[in-house]
């Protein structure tokens, strides 16, 4: 069944973004995806435009980025994470199981709905990988700043077969 | 020695809460506890009332939830995590070792005592599982929002034998 | 090649701090470094002075701790983590690979440069352990409070051979 995740992405009409392109002056000294044996550690990813540049809207949820826009950013973040995995492991069918997802929302102090922001991330992972492989533990909290003023970043751990 | 953790809970007079019951309108698309081989990933849990509903007080520590109340919330959070583990793995004696605990406190900007909020969580885990199995690495930070405006949530990783 | 990491520390002129010494009244109920099999979980560490006491400057980045000072704190935090690893595992050459680094910066709400704060942490790890072992996934976010009002804390996971 090689290519089943890729087929599923196609069926859902989803296109993965290009590799992350950072703004001028921003350098990183880490790997987007680090593989250790069958464990895969995914750095904090944010939403990307199709060309790999950071995708707006930018700012705090919900005062600058309304809930619905933040949920769309969470979907784009899921696609960015899947793209990062594909680049690192070659074939997405190598993913045997998602383990943990950590969502960090660029939140206003009174915003208690980070769970709702992250649900579209989780839903997309479940849609693409299927419920048995895609299901994961998750934590969703609101933080005071996120790199590049993105509305959220998500880190994760997955396992390869 | 089957049942030794359950016996210890009894000796300490501790009762585990029912499974988490979310408020109307809040849905989740993740698992509270995800098992991958012998590794167990625990989603962010907050304090629960005996019936599984979120337990107050709610709000920021310490302006809305004083330190002592937040510490009691941390104890309830530990019981919620243990209850989640029991439901997922069946028998708490399968836990071979705690690995990592991440505490996220719903904190006022000037509150630098998140360590003290989390200590009762760790102490309860040590009491219930014993020092060799229960000991863990930990990080405790203050975040700007927590789901449902709970005073804290805690995620964790434990290992099964 | 026993001692190669220690040799590299020497070559770079780096000295590891003493074990963490907490201020009066602050107790902890966790381990700084928890080993489970070949996996090593590193608790949130902050910058330490040579004697193991928390190293200033303290406060929020950048209003109380300018970017450059926070970057120096990140370097001291890397040394604190390496010192903690050495104490826990005895010989730093046992580290087979870094896996994940989580950086939590004590940030002002408008500060979107947590990536730049953490880079010197990652750079030092890469310098000391070399690019193949030292490379890691990373997440860097801004949080509202950090224990002891330190400018940042970092947790990590590494693997032993």
Q: What features would you describe in this structure?
A:
- The structure is a homotrimer of 161-residue chains.
- Helices cover 32% and strands 24% of the residues of chain A.
- Chain A is α+β, with helices and mostly antiparallel strands.
- In chain A, helix 2 runs parallel beside helix 3.
- The mean pLDDT of chain A is 96.
- At the A-B interface, strand 3, helix 3 and strand 4 of A face strand 1, strand 2 and strand 5 of B.
What's this, in brief?
In chain A, 32% of the residues lie in helices and 24% in strands. The first copy, chain A, has 161 residues and is of the alpha+beta class.
- Structural Rg of chain A: 15 Å
What's the CATH architecture of chain A? 2-Layer Sandwich
Per CATH, the class of chain A reads: Alpha Beta
Provide the CATH topology of chain A: 60s Ribosomal Protein L30, Chain: A
Query: What's the domain count of chain A?
Result: 1
User: What portion of residues of chain A belong to β-strands?
Assistant: 15-25%
| Poorly predicted spans of chain A | none
What is the CATH homologous superfamily assignment of chain A? RutC-like
Alpha-carbon distance between the two ends of chain A: 14 Å
Strand order of the largest sheet of chain A: 1-2-5-3-4
Principal-axes shape call of chain A: globular
The structural class of chain A is alpha+beta
- Outline the biggest β-sheet of chain A: 5 strands, mixed
């Amino acid at each position: 069944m090689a290519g089943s995740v890729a087929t599923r992405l196609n069926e859902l009409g989803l296109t993965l973004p290009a590799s992350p392109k950072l703004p001028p002056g921003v350098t990183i000294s880490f790997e987007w995806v680090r593989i250790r044996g069958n464990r895969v550690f995914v750095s904090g990813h944010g939403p990307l435009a199709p060309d790999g540049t950071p995708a707006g809207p930018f700012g705090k949820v919900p005062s600058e980025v309304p809930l619905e826009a933040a949920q769309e950013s969470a979907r784009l973040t899921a696609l960015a994470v899947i793209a990062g995995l594909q680049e690192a492991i070659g074939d997405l069918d190598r993913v045997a199981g998602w383990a943990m997802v950590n969502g960090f929302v660029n939140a206003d102090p009174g915003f208690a709905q980070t769970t709702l922001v992250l649900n579209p991330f989780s839903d997309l992972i479940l849609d693409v990988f299927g419920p048995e492989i895609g299901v994961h533990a998750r934590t969703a909290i609101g933080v005071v700043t996120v790199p590049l003023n993105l509305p959220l970043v998500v880190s994760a751990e997955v396992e390869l077969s």
